[in-house]
Each structure stands twice: as structure tokens, then as C-alpha cells.
Amino acid sequence: MPTSKAPALAIDARRLTKMYAAGRGKEPVRALGGLTLAVQCGQVFGLLGPNGAGKSTTVRILATLARQDGGEALVDGLDVRRDPGAVRRRIGLVPQRSCSDPVATGRENLVLAGRLQGLGGRDARRRADELLERFGFSEDGGRQAKTYSGGMARKLDVAIGLVHRPSVLFLDEPTTGLDPQARSEMWREIERLAAQERMTVLLTTHYLDEADHLAERLAIIDHGRVVTEGTPDELKRELAGDTVAVDLDDSDAAPIVAQHISTIDGLSGITTEGRTVRARAVHGARAVPLVLARLEQAGIPVASATVSRPSLDDVYLAHAGRTFEGATR
Fold this sequence. Notes:
Layout: E1 11-20, E2 29-39, E3 44-48, H1 55-62, E4 70-75, E5 78-79, H2 84-90, E6 91-94, H3 106-116, H4 121-134, H5 150-162, E7 168-172, H6 180-197, E8 200-205, H7 208-214, E9 217-222, E10 225-230, H8 232-237, E11 242-248, H9 254-261, E12 267-273, E13 276-281, H10 284-297, E14 302-308, H11 312-320, H12 324-328
Parallel strand pairs: 3-8, 3-9, 6-7, 7-8
Antiparallel strand pairs: 1-2, 1-4, 4-5, 9-10, 11-13, 11-14, 12-13
Helix pairs in contact: 3-4, 3-5, 5-6
């Protein structure tokens, strides 16, 4: 339902904080520590971070399913704390876990969602048929949702979130657990939402390639705060040069390797994580032979050495002090 006056931002969250009780005798857990976020209307915005970074807590607050302890948030120009009912009418939410009734058919799930959103019976049935056709399972609309494949079930979840034509759609890790084909199909659907309907989409994910592919702009979250924000290309361009990664047979050797290569000209930002040592290099192809020669002289065996252009994992490493893969484990 459109507003009478279009807001400047689809999502405007400022200094959000949230604490959760951790049990008797334990310190509360800080889920958000002053998170600030601004999402333009019609934009696909990615929240990228490892499990436990605060992505889902942010979505729950913006979708009025949880109350922040501090800060303020506006969605489609409405305050989530003061006017939660109006916010819910403007948004669609696809949570991590399926929101459909497994014993109801796909069509019944959509009709029910439409009625709950205030559509009349005829309009709800018409909208259900539109969405079944759009998502490519009109012939399966009469089957119980529990018989759907993982990809079909996730598409049904998205269709339920779209039934009332929301202004803002929250997709909380929409492709987790999907096989590669179903994941690609979901990517195409999200791209269609942005291109054809100009809907604002807030996408949370812990997949680097997903954020890189889908998000026009993204914020990387770590420990409940935004550590950096920009377009994927902007963030990668901030890191000049190449990434040199040396994988070792023995993790105990990593600090020694870091010390040995620290004096090589053109290397900087040396970090260790497990059996891997990483460094930034002005010219990666020139640096690798020097690194291997230095380690051979020191008698340290190397399993592999690679050179790559900056990735979002490198961006995360630069701002959070560890790789994304290491944080997600």
C-alpha cells in the first residue's frame, strides 16, 4: 500500500541496540551494538555477515517481531515501535524457516495469506493464482506444501511474502539449504522482483557470492555492528593490489611464516588463520616466487600458494580482522 508521500528512504535505522538474556548467572548477549542502516527505495540491499552477526535480529526489529532496546527505525517512513501495525501492512517477510502450512496446499497457503492481509475471498484467490503462475508451479498448487521440493517450498515462502504487494520485502537467508539449481532459480526471482516491480529488498545472507551477485549495495555486519558499507565493487576497489595466500601443512608454522615474509618488499597486511597466511601485495605474481624462496630457505614446507584479486572475503578480513569463512565456522 503506497504512502501519500514517498519517504526519502525505504529503511532508515539509527543506532539500534539489542540485548538478549543468556540464562541465570550469565552476562546478557549483545546482538546489536549501535547498528545504523540506510536503504534507498527500490534497492536490493544485502546484509552480509556470519551466523550470529546480528542479521536476523536486525530483520526482526525492522519487521516489528522484536523491539530494539535503543535507537530508532523507520520502514517506508513509519516508526516500527510507534506504528507496528501500519509497518506490517507495508512489508513482506520471508523468514529463515518456512512459514507455510505443510498440510495445506500451495494455493490454500496463498489464499490464507491474502485473507490475513485483508484481501477479500475473490481477490485472494485471484492473487494466489497469479503468484502460482509467476513462480512456475500452477500445476502443483493443489498439492500439499509438505510434498514440495526445497526449492519449491522456498518459492512458496516468497510468494506468501508478496501476496499483498508490499513496498519492502525482507528475505532472511532465502537460499540456505537449497541445492545449486534451486539457489540459481531463487537468485533469478529476486532479480526479477527488483527489475520488474522496483520493490525494495533487504536480503540477509552469509554467502559471499550471493551478496556479490544480487546486492546493489551491502553492509557487512560483525558482532552486531556495521563494519563497512558500499557497493560490492566499491568495497573491493578499496583494497589495492592482490591477495597472496599461502597454505601450510602445519598450522603451528603460520606465525613463523608470517615473521619470515614480513620483510619482503611489496607485502603488507599479513594475517594468519589456521594453516593459511595471507598478505596484500602490490604485484601478487611477483611476490609469490619471493615468498616461496624465502620459505624454502627457512625449510618450511608449503602446501600451496595462490594469487587472487580482492574479494568480499578480503574486505571482511580487512575490516573484521579475520576471514569470513573462519567467522562462519
